[in-house]
Amino acid sequence: MEVNALTEQSDITDERSERHKRLAQRKEYVLSVLMPVYNEKATILEIVRRVREVEIPKEVVLVDDGSTDGTRDILRNELEGKYPDVKVVFHPENRGKGAAIRTAIENATGDYLIVQDADLEYDPREYFTLLEPLLDGRADVVYGSRFLGGGAHRVHFFWHRLGNGFLTLLSNMLTNLNLTDMEVCYKVFKSEVIKSIPLRCNRFDFEPEITAKVARRKCRIYEVPISYSGRDYNEGKKIGWRDGVQAIWTILKYRFKD
User: Fold this and answer.
1) Pseudo-torsion of CA 91, 97, 99, 104, nearest 10°?
2) The pTM is what?
3) Is the pLDDT score of 240 beyond 70?
4) CATH topology for the 2-156+184-195+221-231 domain
């Protein structure tokens, strides 16, 4: 029984790898990787390296949101103007993640746009899995999910998990969706979808805002399982309880307005 199970799992992995190879060979699309950056000097070069190593047609749009820890110097000296597939934009002051994502969207030219945090919590090698429903014509928007299973997870922060579940449930109730992870970073959009939506939120409340607005537009939304290697606050995690309160207000607000 165990041998059969291992063989079956190996076959599934091989099939997935073949699908990913076929996706990598398709040249008719470009993925824009939208990367908001704030005080990430310890990880910025590594995450850009990992993104650039993924063998799909892409551009990386980095938006520094007023970093004060030396990240801006790294971007200017090591990345700006150094690679044809990397764009770097600077905010003169800190405006928030949502504002940085809006700036990245304005500068993106790809057919599909994905949000990528500048830390190392999310694995760019999973772009293939996230893109598949879009390239197959089944989806307009794809969310990753840290809770569907299928990927490795670092285990900590019970209260974050509880809060995420509550926010996802509240969002689902007001949008009539059945997402498992509304607050996930990995969201992929058709370019024409995301560029047609007016976005206003400046901080982490981008997540419930965009969810409400794609639901209002009856977009075809898929979820796929992803892995997650979450940081703790000593490692630079930034989201806090105030962002959770703001998310609740945003969920309620965009139930009734666009």
Assistant:
1) 70
2) 0.85
3) no
4) Spore Coat Polysaccharide Biosynthesis Protein SpsA; Chain A (3.90.550)
